[in-house]
Prior knowledge:
This protein has 567 residues and is an alpha+beta fold. 57% of the residues lie in helices and 17% in strands. It has helices at residues 5-30, 38-41, 59-80, 105-113, 127-144, 146-159, 166-171, 174-177, 187-195, 198-221, 242-249, 252-257, 317-329, 366-378, 395-424, 426-448, 455-484, 489-521, 525-556; strands at 35-36, 43-50, 86-90, 94-100, 118-122, 229-231, 234-238, 262-273, 276-285, 290-291, 295-302, 309-315, 335-339, 342-345, 356-360, 385-393, 452-453. Strands 3-4-2-16 form a four-stranded antiparallel sheet. Strand 3 and strand 4 form a beta hairpin. Mean pLDDT is 77; it is low at 159-169, 171-196 and 207-212.
Amino acid sequence: MFSTIKGRIVLILALVGICGWYLYSNYAETGSPVKLGLDLQGGMHLVLEVDDPEGTWSLEERSDAIDRSERILRNRIDELGVEEPIIQKVGQDRLIVELAGVDDEERAREMVGTTALLEWRLVRPLSDVQSSLERVDRAIVAHYGADSLRALGRAQVGEGQTGGEVEDLLFGGEGAQEADTVQESGEDQADTDEELDDEALEALQELEDQEGDMAAEELSLRPFSSLLLQLEGGFLVPSRDFELAREFLELPTVQAVLPRDVSLNWGWEPYASGGEIYRELFVLQREPFITGEMLDDANSARDSQTSEPIVQFQLSRAGGRIFGDVTGRHIGDRIAILLDDEVVSAPVVQSRIAARGQITLGRSDIEEARDLALVLRAGALPAPLRVMEERTVGPSLGQDSIDQGMIAGLIGLALVVLIMMGYYRFTGVMAVVALSVYVVLVLGGLATLNATLTLPGIAGLILSIGMAVDANVLIFERIREELAEGRAVRTAVDEGFGHALSAIVDANITTLITALILFQFGTGPVRGFAVTLSIGIIASFFTALYVTRTLFLIYIRGKKATDTISI
Length: 567
């Protein structure tokens, strides 16, 4: 069928129509006929490294962590909806991640870097650690010194000093030099003080000094336990003291005096009570009875009663047995659900729970629930990843690349068209028509395969245009030689295509092999070049030997043996 002129025309029009449809569909959906890479549409470039602050990991362990992280990140990014991401291992302990067309950069950054270690632990009674709080206080005093803690206590009352300035106060920075001073309150306070008589001012100052002395003395003697408020099932720490309490808890000497089978973990969200904001501190079993490794599936939803965002999870068969056994033995107790060592929720077990459950996210939005479900499905990173380098390629830079590539391509096409039409005359026009079909096939091939067009890919496209013209030149020159020897037009055309075939096949096959090698062993932009070049070679072969010959058959149809052609 496809050997006749009608069959050839049908096949060519069908291929052009399919390619045109894919190009139009992509344009209607994304605003671009083909998918553009990072260098053309903008996006994020991240260099990640295994975070090993203590330097205890061996090179083999770091390399293994990076290999596992690469697989997990690829799963996460695929679900995030970023198409054709570049995730490339560099050296033994680094990853390069390129995300083209990312709209929400902060969300993508969090998705890439979140460790997402999911655990279920039993909540322990407060009495398990209350006897250890005195030892914790002594360990903190021994580490910092009573005088430094006393200065810190006065600073907290007089200056509202917490968190980020603790190091300065305790170890002699600017905060330590200012710890014994009281800042002025501004013009309003000064005006108020002027209205008070001397006796009232002295009484006010004496009261402030007493409060500061009491707070400083309490902090110097009970630096950690004085920050805690007891709550059923845990402790509360005022939000203003959260950073200080967390810094105390992270001391190795403090961790050493806590019971070996107990851990203190912070709640995920602030806790509001009585108009105050607190952070919850839970007393938990140190070892989890089940982890996210036994998780089969996780999906986001909204609670049917409260409309709060939740994450519904499904455990594996083995995980379901363990979960059912533990919940069956601890009805009435609390079980904490932890994500990266922070307690997301700690519900009371009402009945035995099998393999299904849910995580309530409180005041979080549904987008956070979706992200959490995504991360849990994709798996936990084997180690935290630190962002070593981050670059954002703006769409304006990508647009400049597109414009320059289009200008280069149009100039190249214009020169090819002029030279072919000027040198080969009417047959040159047929070559230009075939070249137009070639461009549609290449772009349609990229759209059909959902391949990404990068700046090196544009270079591959322009190179393959040159190869398409080269094939036509070989054919036309062979036809000229056959006509010069006195062959009839039909015979000269058949012989020209036949003799040029071997040279065209050799040139295209060798280039195609090179492109496949580049694709196999190259990374990033090199692969983009290889993909575009490979599609261009196949399209060039088809247009030179099939489309151009079809145009010749139409051109010489009805011509007599004695007629000639313009070539």
